[in-house]
């Protein structure tokens, strides 16, 4: 074994103790927060300056894929709030977009189905 394996930060090793559902929720919340910021929904007077619908589309699509794939693994109790947050972002994207996507073609809708 090389020496670097013995210098691992104890905080990194602690991730092995974190339940999968907690990691999935944490990642989903980060994606949701980033998507909201890219939709211009962040806090502060300069929130609109952060608006980038191309970036928001990517984040929402990845979130939709993750939530759809994770739902059977984490159960409805944990998946429902993630689906609700995802749907809110998908609807907000539709409201913010000046060129509407066809039903079923919005961000993440290939995983979730149409939100309208």
Structural account:
This protein is mainly α and 116 residues long. It has one domain (8-112). Helix content is 60%, strand content 0%. It has five helices and no strands. It has helices spanning 10-13, 20-38, 53-74, 76-96, 109-112. The model has no long low-confidence stretch (mean pLDDT 91).
Which terms would index this structure?
116 residues; mainly alpha
Low-confidence stretches: none
**Fraction of residues in β-strands:** under 5%
Number of domains: 1
Count the strands?
A: 0
Largest sheet: none
Please estimate the helix content. Answer: 55-70%
Shape estimate: globular
How do the helices and strands line up, and which of them pair or pack?
Blueprint: H1 10-13, H2 20-38, H3 53-74, H4 76-96, H5 109-112
Helix pairs in contact: 2-3, 2-4, 3-4
Report a brief summary of the structure:
With 116 residues, the protein is mostly helical. The protein is 60% helix and 0% strand. It has one domain.
């Amino acid at each position: 074994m090389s020496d670097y394996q013995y210098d691992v930060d104890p905080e990194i090793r602690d991730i092995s103790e974190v339940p999968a559902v907690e990691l999935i929720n944490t990642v989903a919340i980060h994606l949701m927060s980033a998507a909201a910021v890219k939709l211009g929904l962040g806090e502060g007077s300069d929130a609109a300056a952060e608006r980038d619908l191309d970036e928001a589309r990517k984040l929402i699509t990845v979130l939709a894929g993750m939530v759809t794939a994770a739902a059977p693994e984490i159960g409805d109790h944990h998946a429902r709030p993630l689906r609700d947050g995802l749907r809110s972002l998908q609807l907000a994207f539709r409201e913010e977009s000046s060129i509407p996507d066809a039903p079923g073609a919005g961000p993440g809708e290939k995983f979730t189905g149409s939100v309208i």
